[in-house]
Structures are given as C-alpha cells and as structure tokens.
Amino acid sequence: MNPLVSILIPTHNRPEYFELALASALMQTYPNIEIVVGDNSTNNLTEQIVAKHRSHPRGSVIRYYHHSGNIGPIANQQQLLNLANGEYINYLNDDDLFHPRKIEIMMRHILSHTNVVLVTSQRRVIDSKGKRIFVPPIGTFKVLRPVDTVIDGGVLTRDMLQDRTNYIGEPTTALFRRRDLTEPFGVLAGKQVLFAVDMASWFSLMTRGHAIYLVQPLSYLRFHPEQLSQSKYAQKIAEMDYKVFERFAKLRGFA
C-alpha cells in the first residue's frame, strides 16, 4: 500500500492564491494523500473555498482548521505538523503550486533509498499572475546537479552553511519523512529560527540522512510583494537566524 502523504497548507488572508494552491494539491496523481489546512485568516473566505472544493472527487481528504485568532506563520506550520497523520510530509505555501505529479515522483524516489530522508527538485518562479519569471529575483535557483542525484546530507549542509543559501528550497519544494524531523518545524538544536524556518528543519533532517535532488521542476514558487520575505525587516531577522546556524555549525563540526 502507498504510504500516506500529508500536504500541509498554512494560509492567511490569501483566498485567491489559496484556491489555486488547494486545486494543485487535489490534482496530485499520488493516490494516498491528506490535505490539512491551517487558516489564520481574519475572515471566512478561505473556509468558503474549502467548502466549495469538498465536492471535488477527492474533497474528502481535506481537513480544515480555522484558528480563533492569528497564531502566526511559525505556530501555524508547527501545529499543522502535529495534526498530520502522514508518514511523509510536504508543505504547500498558500501562494505556491505543485506540479500534478510532484508527490508521485518524489515518493517513488524516497521509497527506493533507505538512507534518504528528503527529496527536493528544481522549481519554477512565477509572478502574481502565474506567469513564469525567467530571471528569478533571488539567487537560489541554480541547478545543483545535471542529473537526479543522491546528495550526502553532510555535504549539502556544509554547502548551505558556507554559502548562506537554501539550496533545498522553500517548504513547498521538499518532501520529507516525518519521523526523521525530531524537533518542531523551524527549531534547530533547541533554538527557534524566526525567518529561515525551512532551512532550520532541512539542516536538522540532513543530520539523519541524505537528500535526493531531482532536475525536473516539480513546484512553482510565486514571487510577489505581499510575501513575508519581501518585508523590510526580513534581512534583519535573517541575520539573527544565521547566529543560530553558526552555533549549529560549530556543534556539528562544520565551522
């Protein structure tokens, strides 16, 4: 039987983008999924979208939670992970999209390697209208390997630490085995990261195994002005995170 994969969608006041993200999750060709939505919205527009999509042939796989107040993006991600039933996890940011075969392809690869804890891939960047951006405004989109490759977890961690670059990608990009993430999402060696939350968990996972990098683009990162990463405070918070990463590097012998 195909293991259950939990697709976790944290969302906040982006009903138009959320509906597209949810549709891309429902269109997955992998047969055994659940979709868990954590809604921080201040209105019921997202809830209405979920209700509409329950008539989809796979609508019964959606589990929806509307928080009584905005608990913030990190707490939302962490609560979703606690609510998930799946043996494997893939976050889906509410403004991003999945390729229809993303989960199917990634699960085939991770199940064929006992020492792999995470699968990532190339991704495409799209704008607010869904049009592809060919020159990404951020510099993390280089092709890591020319072919599908198993990358040693320590090697990948060292490269990411030294280059200060998230080569694995955003939460949407990577699928991972849940049991190998031993701390809450975004916590690294006991320290909560505030901005590069995904990097913290990728580092944690890489201490327990290797990653597979796939050259086929399997997700779509939407770049738009409303992203938290575009905040004027983002860079300052990111610098605080790197102090946590430097501490981790010393603990693990990477510094």
UniProtKB/TrEMBL annotation:
User: What is the organism lineage in this UniProt record?
Assistant: Bacteria, Bacillati, Bacillota, Bacilli, Bacillales
Q: Name one GO molecular function term.
A: hexosyltransferase activity
Q: Which InterPro entries match?
A: Glyco_trans_2-like, Nucleotide-diphossugar_trans
- Cited Pfam families: Glycos_transf_2
The entry's protein name is Glycosyltransferase 2-like domain-containing protein
**Source organism (scientific name):** Paenibacillus apis
- What does the similarity note say? Belongs to the glycosyltransferase 2 family.
What range(s) does the Glycosyltransferase 2-like domain occupy? 6-178
